[in-house]
Amino acid sequence: MISRLRGRIEFIADDHIIVDIGPVGLTVFVPADKLATYQTGQAVALFTHFHVREQEFTLFGFASQEEMDLFLLLLGVSGVGPKLAMSILSTLPPDTIRMAVANDEPALLTRVPGIGTKSARKILFHLKDKMGITEFSGLGSVPITDDDAEVIEALTGLGYSIIEAQRAVQGVGSDVAGVEERLRAALAQLL
User: Fold this and answer.
1) Same domain, yes or no, for 81 and 43?
2) What 3-state DSSP class applies to 134?
3) Apex 149 CA angle, 118 and 126, nearest 5
């Protein structure tokens, strides 16, 4: 089992990197948000999961143990394979996934390509069961309204990360009503 590796990035592709670990170069699939931060020649240390399926051997790499643990939890959900689990982690940071579970917000997970409402609910149910609600103390924010979900969707469409969008929406006072007004107020905080 390969659980951790250190080396230099030899090549960066659309969904993976090749890490030179001496005489061997390993293909390691990493979350897309991390790919953007890597450079060829950069030293890297990754927590890894070696996934074996029939005749396919795949290595997935993560910057933190927390990300890898969440990846493994996602793999435990029926219908979620490694590519979808990686897509979830590429789209949503672990804190956002925790917030979705704590607040039972499937709308956050439906932002991931390939996940509909039914799948999002199943994933949330499984994660809540596995992680336990006690892990989310301190994250308890007010569940987002339909208007806030539209504002978050508009902000992410403009290129803001989901975390930036959520923080901006949380900073808008409850006295501001309507999607357009809330969007203006959120944008004012981001600029």
Assistant:
1) no
2) helix
3) 35
Q: Please, are residues 17 and 9 in contact by the beta-carbon 8 Å criterion? A: yes
* Residue 33 token pair: 């948000």
Q: What is the CATH number of the domain that holds 44?
A: 2.40.50.140
Numbers of helices and strands, H then E, in the chain: 9, 5
CA dihedral 16, 21, 23, 28 (to 10 degrees): -20
CA–CA separation, 150 and 166 (whole Å): 11
pTM over 0.70: no
pLDDT digits (tens, 9 = 90+) for 97-123: 888 888 888 888 888 888 988 999 999
CA angle 3, 86, 56 (to 5 degrees): 65
Residue 141 lies in a domain: no
Q: Is residue 135 within 8 Å of residue 98, measured between CB atoms?
A: yes
Picking from 62, 79, 98, the residue at the C-terminal end of a domain is 62
Contact 131, 101 (CB under 8 A): yes
- The structure tokens listed for 160 are 């803001």
Q: Which domain holds residue 122?
A: 65-136
